[in-house]
Amino acid sequence: MGLLRETQEVLRALMIVSTKQKQIAELAKNSPEMSLTALNHYLNLDWLKAAFFQCRWNSAPGIDGQTMEEYAESLESNLQSLLNRAKSGSYIAPPVKRVHIPKDASGKETRPIGIPATEDKILQKAVCMILEPIYEQDFLDCSYGYRPGRSPHDALDAVWRQSMGIGVEVILDLDIRKFFDSPDKTRLVRFVKPGGSDRKGPDTFDFLGFTHYWGKSRNGNWVIKRKTVRKRLNKALRGIAAPGR
Predict the structure, then answer these.
(1) Using CA atoms, how far apart are residues 115 and 101, in angstroms rounded to an integer?
(2) Which of 3, 45, 214, 238 is most buried (most C-beta within 10 Å)?
(3) 3-state SS string for 16-33
């Protein structure tokens, strides 16, 4: 009975938030010149509950060591305390835990990532849920990064459809890795369909973990295909070979 009541409470909070997000989005869309400044009233207990249940429960804990499950043990009081501090301006975000994860299969290069504390994750998500419907109206349809309802697979599908539809011959590859250390990170990738006077063979380029290349379809036509980047594939195979590691 308790679980049923809790599930109903979660669904109720999510529905309330969804309705309000649609209202915010509609206002931002119809009045793009308006500065939306009266947004603080949206942040309430229902909003924080919805934010909590949209956070990843298996995410690593931050500097406080508290997991999402531990926070949920006293969810109502924890969220009320967080709301009071956020509204009064007394909330102070804890330091972000910095960890380094392997960047490639070799493990020689690492990527630094920041892990916020559990409470900070919830508040960040809640603020994001308020601002997202506003700024979503300004994004172009060709934008996919960190947008709701879109994934890297959607971006890959868009690259394939556009490349096949308009006869792409050049790919503009922008890499922001260590951007401020080495500012020249723009390059042109040759990607010409094989055949005719082209004697160099199929070109390839890597994008979002996949190698894109020219291949023949069942009908014998040249089409763009993709396969897992070799370094990622080798890493996955080593993981399968040593499951206990």
Answers:
(1) 12
(2) 214
(3) HHHHHHHHHHHHHHHCCC
